[in-house]
Write the structure tokens for this entry.
Amino acid sequence: MRILALFYALAALQMGTAHTVFTTLFINDANQSPGTCGRMPMTPNKATFPINDLKSDDMACGYNGTAGVARVCTIPQAAKLDFLFVEYADNSQPGAIDISHKGPCAVYMKRVESAIQDKAIGDGWFKIWEDTYDAETSQWCTEKLIKNNGMLSVKIPENLAGGYYLIRPELLALHQADKNPPNPQFYLGCAQIFLNSTATSLPKDTVKIPGYVEPTDPAVLFNIYVPKWPYPALGPALYNGSNSVEVKPVDRQTEGLLPYNAVVTNANWWALELDPYSTSDGCKNASKVCFDLTSQCYNSAPPTGSSGCRLWETKCNGVRDACNAGNFNGPPQKNKVLMPGPPGPTKAARQFSVLDTSPTTTPTTAVPTPEPSSSTFQPPAMKLLDTIPTTTSINTVPTPEPSSPTSEPPAMKVSLDGRCGEAQTCTGSAFGDCCSKHNWCGSGSLYCGYNCLADYGTCRGQYKFAREDAHRRRQRSYGWARSNGWAMGHGFAFADELENAPGWANRGL
Ligand SMILES: [Cu+2]
């Protein structure tokens, strides 16, 4: 019983702290990878917190939102963008936003001289999309967001002038707006983008953020429990393509591009290949440079995680070990692109899982990133280069010890692409040790908990079980929760239940 009580307490704690945060940008359905091109709160345990002070500068791009990041994502004309909102910034647990958090959504843009330098606050903002309450289906925008796996979808106005922008998805949760004092909660973030277009229009009317909403506006004080329809206007009128001014488009993106020869990324951090070396000193120096970059990566990692840093660190370990073994020629696996790993929460992320099986002899030249035809736009290069592994297979993670309690057959290969199953195990992989039931490596409870496949990785605690037992086990967990009278509300339910819900299908952990 004590264990159960603790479990309840932990679950309750998680409910209380999990709100929502924008983490991942999709351009015409291509996943740009969590944190990439985004300005987001840098404190992990506060990353999902709402903004309550409507007059604060945080209203522009969120906590830490005045500071730019190194990457600017390229958007083709009239692109479809999706903004992923999640309850857990690192995707360690499922959920978009708590069901209690009902309210409208909107997307704003601001044209800027530099997407990296601009502080976001002040005038220049306009609204390109909004959704409030749908009387026909009796749903708030946030409820639709939950059904859509946390994806907020918007089309960029076709006539919008080419150039740099900050783009800002916004949710307003009204569940405490009727309280005294009122507590309307804004959840928002920004992405830095370059709109690659020859179009020339900009909206004539823009607003200031903060300033575009006031704490006394009826729309932020709206009582969702005793609603008086219609929902009042929130912020400025939508930009509908007319009422515009003509400007000169910026013809070429010059900031925030990923270097074509980057071999690994983590959010807005990247590393190029190490310089070649052939002496003991050269080797030691390369090792030091490599580990310095590793620290840089971990220190700059946003709350979305550091899987790219772990990949790079694994490479550094290989360099160091080779130096120690007297092999001074390197770097090992030169120019091999290390994949930014899953957990990527969508189908788009799955396209990334291809690399690494067949080394080609001819190193191809990488294509620079800003391809305007962006249905094929992807982070650098899975299909790109790969050279024949030089000597030792430095970049491979050691095989799991046969003596470990959850030992795999020795034939298992450690996952290099974040997938598990068949002949691949997560144990020792850079993505986390646990294999989820949909064959992804990770370290959160969805990977290591009752969903965990012990045959293809390490599972934790009482939840260790084999594939055959999975179904029985799930039934039991579910029944247990019910019989203990656990209210399934407030954003926490068993993943299987969520998975079977209509909106959950594509999450596929
Ligand atoms: Cu909340």
